[in-house]
Specification:
Layout lengths: L7 E5 L5 H8 L4 E5 L4 E3 L4 E3 L2 H9 L3 E2 L8 H10 L3 E5 L7 H4 L6 E5 L11 H7 L4 E8 L9 E8 L6 H21 L33 H10 L6 E5 L2 E11 L8 E5 L2 E5 L4 E9 L5 E2 H8 L16
Parallel strand pairs: 1-2, 1-6, 2-5, 6-7
Antiparallel strand pairs: 3-4, 7-8, 8-9, 10-11, 11-14, 12-13, 13-14, 14-15
């Protein structure tokens, strides 16, 4: 007698989670999709569903968008009534209470974009790049009430290409996560949970705007790695006489000078000294203006070799 197919509830919100949902749908019945509530977006503050919610609506899948989970008996009943034997979370964005974790027979499986226990937290992709990692990966873990502390079920490494920003790395990890979660669900009865070693844990807190500010006293490699990590948001920001400048296409270059000092302006861009080495900037976007080649911006702004960009340092606590 053939056993019934595994019924899955899916919790996710951003575009990153859409291919993971699709990979699950290709093999298992998705009986409920749960996403964050709609939020105002753009200048007109139009109420807009997160990408997973919009995708579920387009597919005609049952959708719930609870404002809160803790103490929400109505939503808990919705999950129970869906008949889901297992739930999968992928960048959902809310902490799950213990009472909810106990509802599906197999609990909750989470797709996390790091090799846990490294980079627990909200921004593992970004911090792996900022810290100059050359390898990351995906972990499928059994969710517990902690922050990415549950036992590991499956794990696979992913080499990071030197030119990748957070955008390209997220795409590669979404593809990997989609494949791994499908494999985990196929073996949900037989997977052996392996506890994490908390002593080896590192953390990846949510980014803030200041994480995108250039620290010219850092080395050129550190500045370039930070720009890769913040490429999607908050992006790379420098200052000249207090005015904000968005910088893109940063690469390490030869050169020495005072941190923040403009060394060269030519057709390849603008080269600025770092704490060690130098950084070539391909494009600059001044506030309330369009991005332009760095050389064109420098000529128009009167920026020449010897000009020094503001040196910003994070405040000490």
């Amino acid at each position: 007698m053939t056993s019934p197919p595994l019924r899955v509830a899916f919790f996710g919100s951003p575009a990153f989670a859409v291919p993971v949902l699709d990979a699950i749908r290709a093999q298992f019945p998705v009986v409920l999709v749960v996403a964050q509530p709609d939020k105002p977006v753009g200048r007109g503050l139009k109420l807009t569903p997160p990408p997973v919610a919009a995708h579920a609506q387009a597919l005609g899948l049952p959708l719930a968008q609870p404002k809160k989970l803790r103490g929400n008996a109505e939503f808990e009943a919705t999950l129970r009534d869906s008949g889901a034997a297992v739930a999968v979370t992928c960048a959902y964005g809310k902490i799950l209470p213990a009472s909810l974790l106990a509802v599906p027979r197999y609990g909750f499986l989470n797709t996390h974009t790091s090799l846990l226990p490294a980079y627990r937290g909200a921004a593992p992709i970004q911090w792996a790049l900022i810290n100059g990692e050359t390898v990351t990966g995906t972990t499928i873990m059994q969710t517990d009430p902690g922050m990415d502390t549950g036992p590991v079920l499956l794990q696979e490494a992913l080499p990071i290409e030197p030119a990748w920003t957070s955008v390209e790395l997220a795409d590669a990890l979404a593809t990997q996560a989609a494949r791994l979660i499908a494999a985990a669900l196929e073996r949900v009865d037989t997977l052996t949970p392996t506890p994490q070693d908390g002593a080896l844990a590192t953390h990846a807190p949510m980014l803030v705007k200041e994480d995108g500010f250039v620290r010219w006293t850092d080395s050129a490699a550190q500045i370039v790695n930070r720009s890769r990590g913040v490429a999607a948001w908050p992006q790379t920001t420098a200052f000249l006489n207090g005015a904000r400048l968005k910088l893109t296409a940063l690469t390490a270059a030869e050169g020495h000078g005072q941190p923040g000092e403009v060394l060269r302006v030519d057709e390849t861009g603008m080269t600025v000294a770092a704490g060690a080495g130098a950084v070539r900037i391909g494009a600059v976007q001044p506030e309330a203006r369009k991005a332009q080649p760095a050389s064109a911006w420098a000529h128009a702004a009167g920026v020449t070799p010897g000009t020094r960009l503001d040196v910003w340092e994070p405040p000490t606590s």
